[in-house]
Amino acid sequence: MSDVLVAARELEREYRVGPETVRVLRGVSLEVPAGESVALIGASGVGKSTLLHLLGGLDRPSAGQVLCAGEDMYARSESALARLRRSEIAFIFQFYNLLGEMTALENAMMPALLQRLTAAEARERGAAALHEVGLGDRLAHRPGELSGGEQQRVAIARALVAQPKLVLADEPTGNLDPKTSEVIWELFLRLQAERGLAFVIATHNHDLARKADHGYRLVEGRAVAWT
Amino acid sequence: MAAHAVGIGGARFGGAALAVIAGPCAIESEELVLLVAEKRKEIGILKAMGASARNIGTVFLAAGMAIGLVGTAAGSLFGLALIWVQNTYKIIRLAGDVYQIDHLPMKLTGLDFTLVTSATLLISFLATLSPARRAARLDPVEVLRYE
After folding, report:
1. Range of the domain at B46
2. Which terminus has fewer CB within 10 Å in chain A: N or C?
3. In total, how many domains does chain B have?
4. Least CA distance to A80: which residue of chain B?
């Protein structure tokens, strides 16, 4: 087995909702090997997004640890977590979350600009990533001028530009038709093979989830191995 | 933003000028608060991509200061134009039998100009601090989950 890139250890997350405490995650443990894909399935509201946010350094756990290169990710400061997200981890969302006023190229450039690359370098990287996902002829289009599948491919290009080791995709095909979903999933698998990227993909689609190297089902706040 | 220096026989209306400055700066602060509310989702997306709280705060601080600079420049030009119009066309008249002159003279001094523009920029900067801090502290998880 490959080296473990990120691992969750007895991860817990609870939220205060008015007077009540909602325990979403109740001791999740799982491993994401470098360069491999992990599918995360489970009913809506079971905590898949919460788990992805925690694996990506975007939230803070109530208890437990997320180990990144063997060290507790959440022992780091907020600015160190931001640096980690800038360089090692990328998110892809169900509703694409593109910046609507910007073109596909400008969206794709953004992570490179956050990494303080020059505008020319960022443009070069963004254009290359858009070509890689098959949108080389759509650089100047705004999100509103693209189909759902194309917008998701822009989001994937944006994730690639940061040159991360880990991509966390939250229901990336949840808003797409079956055929486009298949195309997006194949793109993930190709990028995994070609770039050695690790993916954690939350999905409701069991057929697609079976194509991942590993699978976990979230049940009652815990992760259970799934095949 | 404010007519810069209005004087009769060297008298200065510093308090009035500051009041005129503070109003637009309060509006600027409100504008920024609205901008932060409007851009919540974008802030969340940028934070997910690795923008730090400082990055976000700096963007809004810069936006606020840009508004302040443009406002100060526009206000300065407007004030200079008012002074020129009044001194040229003598629109505001005075009772000639009460005063030795029949119109309100306006004079701009370098000190007045420096004081008022500096105060404008300072208040403008202070007005941006709270909205910029609010933007920097925005929780990306909350935004990405619910918007």
Report:
1. 20-145
2. C
3. 1
4. B52
